[in-house]
Amino acid sequence: MTSLWRVLYQINPTFFPHGPxxxxxxxxxxxxxxxQIVYHELGLLQAGLSVTDSKSPAMEIERARSxxxxxxxxxKSTPDAFLKMVRNEPLTRKGCGxxxxxxxxxxxxxxxxxxxxxxxxxxxxxxxxxxxxFIQRCNLDPEAFITVCPKQRGxxxxxGSKSGQALPINLKKYVELAMDVTSASPRRYxxxxxxxxxxxxxxxxxxxxxxxxxxxDDLYQYNQKERRTVLEVLExxxxxxxxxxxxxxxxxxxxxxxFSIASSPSAHPNQVxxxxxxxxxxxxxxxxxMGLCSSWLASLDxxxxxxxxxxxxxxxxxxxxxxLPLILIGPGTGCAPFRGFLAERAAHDTSSSAxxxxxxxxxxxxxxxxxxxxxxxxxxxxxxxxxxARGGGFYVAFSRDQPQKVYVQxxxxxxxxxxxxxxxxxxxxxxxAGSSTNMPSDVMLAVEEIISKEGxxxxxAAAVLIRRxxxxxxxxxxxxx
Length: 481
Known about the structure:
The protein is an alpha/beta fold and about 475 residues long. The protein has helices at about 1-10, 25-30, 40-50, 55-65, 130-135, 170-180, 190-195, 200-210, 215-225, 230-235, 245-250, 290-300, 335-345, 375-380, 410-415, 415-425, 440-455, 460-470; strands spanning about 35-40, 80-90, 100-110, 120, 145-150, 170, 255-260, 270-275, 280, 290, 305-315, 325-330, 355-365, 395-400, 430-435, 475-480. Strand 12 (about 325-330), helix 13 and strand 13 form a beta-alpha-beta unit. Helix 7 (about 190-195) packs antiparallel against helix 8 (about 200-210). The radius of gyration is 28 Å and the shape is globular. Residues about 155-165 have low confidence and may be disordered.
């Protein structure tokens, strides 16, 4: 770029009145924040705005999240329902290295209708002590009432007295509900803006190095690899005092977490169930990290009566009609939606007329993480929906219980004739759910091999048939990272 400026200066010196090597003051290099914080006097609020009447949890969430710079036009701010946990049950053996929980919630105060295969989104709560530490570190007034509004074009500020389109919200509540200060890592531009507000020279130099091309790898090691939170980064650079406008714009938003629903509205009225793996890992510098939402849910005691804001929406697994034969592949927590499928079909299987289900489940060890073992086995005997007598089947791959790893795709190949018969004669649909790493592609490859082998067609023709199944709504995948 320096060479370009000098060539342009030779062509026309008026391009650079101060010369091509002139560097403007740093204050001129930093853009202005795109959002303005309007502070409201409490006395005027109580006189003119009904703040006390709008302190319900639903309204506070709606106000905070609708003001957030990260708000998307299609994103619904107001929760569909509030849930209360009534059951928190470990599904894995204690000490096995994995923690998977079964959660049951009741609707509070009113029930929301949903279908099997739907997705539940949960807004997690942040550690209140860490939220208080962030507010104190940034010299913010937790009792202030604010509105967050975009600046108008031409850098004109919004008149605070006329910004009543959105009701003001308590500053601490806004941080709790809209800004992820306790789990998410900031992006590179956060460090660049910090460098302009650092008053200690060594901190300024380190921040400028982080955002330089030479410091890119070190920033990655410091920030992303260690998953440092916004609060931790700010505490590492104590001389930095960023204006709240910049924090509102640059702190990652507090995002909802999505889970496949593991229950059936017919079998579990007024309830919704989840199967959740509690996320934890160790960073390269041996720092213990926990997933915000999963660890928060796991810490809840059903007797506490904590209300959980939630949203419901359609996922990638449409609810199948009872007459449709199913081939389900769900290793690990991928079994969650299929627990709902099975419960829903069993609830309406009064005369044993429902179509059969073949279910391929996978886990590491039979004694450690065989999730919902008794449920699957109970339906695989005595004419149950998973019984071979009904044309179904339950097949488990324990990947670590023998020297050579065995996965669900291996069990599928063992049942290739039965799968082909279900597809070609029974018109079955395939549903796949679980980790998005290699499993979905490995399963599709296994289906392709089965169609080619049992149908006597080339692999290319088998791939075409799979695409036809997808177009006809008979091959569905729901995968997550």
